[in-house]
Write a structure and sequence with these properties.
The chain has two domains: 115 residues, Immunoglobulin-like (Sandwich); 91 residues, Immunoglobulin-like, CATH 2.60.40.4070. Helix content is 0%, strand content 48%. It is built from no helices and 15 strands. The termini are far apart. The N terminus is likely disordered.
Length: 224
């Protein structure tokens, strides 16, 4: 097998992130961030790399925590070395702060080091007028959370909604919603307490939302 030198990430650079204030008859759909960078090569700055691993997280990303962060999927495909690339990441909390970093791999399986880390606030994407609503259960905001964490539900039609919170061991700690919800947008707020009204300890919790035949799982980092 040919062994090539590891591809080099020149640097992940923020292209733009514009906040659009929702106007009358408009609904905030989700948060987006658009990132731009210069494509590396397969052999350093020559050729085309094989794949990217683009990650984001609400806390600063370090090389040792890279693989425990959220992965952008599907990842953009590498372009020829030296070309400018951009990607827009959807499904973020509008106004939320996120950190992004990227790695790339060549055809021999050599991975680059992690790029520089970009910090940015997600912008708003809006749907105006009677444009159809897309089914969604948003990421929590704020996250990390202290007093409470909220989620936005977007339902194109009325549906049964079941939302449960679990600790990292899989033990259910709180039933947040089990009811029929009308079509449209609504907000669910969790006071970060369990079913007995006790404040939860600091740590990671998982919130699972079953809406019709779709299941969403969101992570909430509780700080005390």
């Amino acid at each position: 097998m040919r062994v090539s030198s590891a591809p080099v990430v020149v640097g992940l650079l923020l292209a733009f992130a514009v906040v659009v204030a929702p106007a009358r008859s408009a609904h905030a759909e989700d948060g987006t961030v658009t990132l731009g960078w210069t494509a590396p090569g397969d052999d350093s700055l020559v050729g085309t790399a094989t794949a990217y691993d683009l990650r984001y997280y609400p806390l600063p990303i370090k090389p040792e925590t890279f693989f425990s962060t959220f992965k952008v999927s599907p990842a953009p495909l590498p372009q020829t070395s030296g070309k400018r690339q951009t990607v827009t990441v959807h499904g973020l909390v509008p106004g939320g702060t996120y950190y992004f970093a990227i790695r790339t791999v060549d055809d021999a399986g050599n991975w680059s080091l992690m790029s520089n880390v970009v910090m940015v606030k997600a912008s708003y994407t809006v749907a105006v007028g009677d444009q159809p609503v897309t089914l969604d259960f948003s990421n929590p905001f704020p996250n990390p959370a202290r007093g409470s964490a909220s989620f936005t539900l977007a339902l194109p039609t009325a549906a049964g909604v079941d939302v449960q919170a679990f600790d990292v061991s899989g033990r259910r700690v709180r039933s947040l919603m089990t009811q029929q919800q009308p079509a449209g947008h609504s907000t669910l707020t969790w006071d970060l307490r369990d079913d007995q009204g006790r404040s939860l300890g600091a740590g990671m919790y998982l919130v699972r939302a079953r809406i019709g035949d779709r299941t969403f799982v969101r992570r909430v980092m509780v700080e005390r």
